[in-house]
């Protein structure tokens, strides 16, 4: 919950510093154009071009912000398709084994868990490509009914990179560990030097009725 | 209709935002197209499709009732049901997953663009006309995504060939590629031949079939 609060604050700041400022500037520029249109049509035309550029950049920023907060494909199609899309976008080939029902079939994972799992998977894939220099990645995700301890979502990302991934405070893996722990889950890292690396995130959830 | 080549293109539109719907209708008018119907959701457009018999259907992606991917589903249905009608999807964001579904759902005219691109009258007119002629129009952002996932084989291409490849994947003709890169059509043709050789693709000749060959390769 605390992580959620912090990310909401960051989002507010990002909107304030980015698109909001750009729109204020755009409004100022449009007012200048209005004043210049009779007096200096050439200048007005040039400023119009700049204003359009300003509007385009505002849109780009808003899109980047909302994607970082709520990826459209996840909203539209749910976790299974969003994970497939993540794998397809990776620059290193990803073998996918997704055992999560698509199209809203039960058990339905709550939206907040879906979003967190998506970002954990995205970061694990990025780590495998960037830090481990992997040439091949396997992403597995499935749901498990343990009976007494309820439903769990299991996510594994394994890669054939150089291994040696450790959780150092302030670094990526530590942040992931915190995120998963915030959901009462556990992150299991198995990454001997020389590889391969296997990281599992296991998160409990209550299916949406 | 004495001279069909001069009849304005007939458009139907589905866009739930009144603001954008009115803006698009005005742009279509400026571009010299005739808007037959402007709907607020995909179901209304589909229900009237046979009666309206447009040249091109232009759709938003997120629309009522669930505001998810209604436009994508409707576009796929139109492509199956009426391959003679060109489909142009306009969206606030583009997804490679949707591009793949659209491309594999038929081979009539299809376009998938960010809404930002059609703020320019020329780009909107160009996209609608290409789609009405059975062409493919893909947003540069989708193409970047498609190219990004095929890193290794593309490394064999020269930087110029990669530029040509990207523009081909956007659905541009040789003449369009030449114009975008400020080079001659002959130079484009030479690059295209070399790309097809390096990727072991068969050059099928016409601009449109070539685009499909490149896109099929990128999705493989």
UniProtKB/TrEMBL annotation, chain A:
Keywords, ordered alphabetically: ATP-binding, Kinase, Nucleotide-binding, Phosphoprotein, Transferase, Two-component regulatory system
InterPro entries tied to this protein: HATPase_C_sf, Sensor_HK_TwoCompSys, Sig_transdc_His_kin_sub3_dim/P
Catalytic activity, EC: 2.7.13.3
Catalytically driven reaction(s): ATP + protein L-histidine = ADP + protein N-phospho-L-histidine
Single Gene Ontology MF annotation: ATP binding
Coiled-coil segments: none
Presence of the UniProt keyword Membrane in the record: no
Pfam families per UniProt: HisKA_3
Organism: Agromyces terreus
Domain Signal transduction histidine kinase subgroup 3 dimerisation and phosphoacceptor residues, every copy: 9-72
GO CC aspect terms: membrane
Gene3D superfamilies attached to this UniProt entry: 1.20.5.1930, Histidine kinase-like ATPase, C-terminal domain
Taxonomic classification: Bacteria, Bacillati, Actinomycetota, Actinomycetes, Micrococcales
Protein name in UniProt: histidine kinase
SUPFAM superfamilies for this protein: ATPase domain of HSP90 chaperone/DNA topoisomerase II/histidine kinase
TrEMBL record, chain B:
Segments forming domain HTH luxR-type: 150-220
Gene3D superfamilies the record matches: 3.40.50.2300, Winged helix-like DNA-binding domain superfamily/Winged helix DNA-binding domain (1.10.10.10)
PTM sites of type 4-aspartylphosphate: 60
GO biological process: phosphorelay signal transduction system; regulation of DNA-templated transcription
Signal peptide range: none
Keyword set, alphabetical order: DNA-binding, Phosphoprotein, Transcription, Transcription regulation
Domain Response regulatory: 10-130
Keyword Transferase included in the entry's annotation: no
The keyword Transmembrane is annotated on this UniProt entry: no
InterPro entries with a match to the protein in the record: CheY-like_superfamily (IPR011006), Sig_transdc_resp-reg_C-effctor (IPR016032), Sig_transdc_resp-reg_receiver (IPR001789), Tscrpt_reg_LuxR_C (IPR000792), WalR-like (IPR039420), WH-like_DNA-bd_sf (IPR036388)
GO MF annotations in UniProt: DNA binding
Identification of the protein by name: DNA-binding NarL/FixJ family response regulator
């Amino acid at each position: 919950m605390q992580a959620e609060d912090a990310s909401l604050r960051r989002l507010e700041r990002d909107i304030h510093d980015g698109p909001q400022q750009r729109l204020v500037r755009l409004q100022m520029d449009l007012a200048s154009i209005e004043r210049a249109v009779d007096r200096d049509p050439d200048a007005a035309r040039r400023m119009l071009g700049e204003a359009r550029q300003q509007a385009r950049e505002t849109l780009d920023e808003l899109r980047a912000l909302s994607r970082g907060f709520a990826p459209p494909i996840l909203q539209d199609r749910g976790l299974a398709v969003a994970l497939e899309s993540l794998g397809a976008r990776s620059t290193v080939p990803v073998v996918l084994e997704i055992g999560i029902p698509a199209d809203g079939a039960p058990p339905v994972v709550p939206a907040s868990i879906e979003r967190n799992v998506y970002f954990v998977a995205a970061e694990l894939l990025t780590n495998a490509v960037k830090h481990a220099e992997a040439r091949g990645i396997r992403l597995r995700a499935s749901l498990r009914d343990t009976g007494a301890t309820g439903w769990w979502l299991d996510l594994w990302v394994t890669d054939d990179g150089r291994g040696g991934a450790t959780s150092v405070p302030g670094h990526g893996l530590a942040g992931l560990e915190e995120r998963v722990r915030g959901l009462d889950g556990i992150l299991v890292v198995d990454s001997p030097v020389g590889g391969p690396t296997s990281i599992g995130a296991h998160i409990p959830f209550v299916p949406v009725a | 209709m004495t001279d069909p080549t001069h009849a304005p293109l007939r458009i139907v539109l589905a866009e739930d935002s009144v603001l954008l719907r009115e803006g698009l209708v005005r742009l279509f008018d400026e571009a010299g197209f005739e808007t037959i119907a402007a709907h607020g959701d995909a179901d209304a457009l589909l229900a009237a499709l046979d009666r309206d018999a447009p040249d091109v259907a232009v759709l938003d992606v997120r629309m009522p009732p669930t505001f998810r991917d209604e436009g994508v589903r409707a576009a796929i249905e139109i492509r199956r049901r009426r391959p003679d009608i060109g489909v142009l999807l306009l969206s606030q964001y583009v997804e490679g997953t949707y591009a793949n579904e659209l491309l594999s759902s038929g081979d009539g005219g299809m376009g998938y663009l960010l809404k930002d691109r059609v703020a320019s009258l020329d780009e909107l007119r160009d996209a609608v006309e290409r789609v009405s002629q059975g062409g493919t129009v893909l947003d540069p952002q989708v193409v970047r995504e498609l190219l990004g996932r095929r890193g290794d084989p593309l490394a064999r291409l020269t930087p110029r060939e990669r530029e040509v490849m990207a523009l081909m994947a956007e659905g541009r003709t040789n003449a369009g590629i030449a114009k975008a890169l400020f080079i001659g059509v002959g130079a484009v043709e030479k690059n295209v031949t070399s790309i097809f050789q390096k990727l072991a693709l068969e050059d099928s000749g016409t601009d449109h079939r070539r685009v499909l060959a490149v896109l099929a390769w990128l999705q493989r």
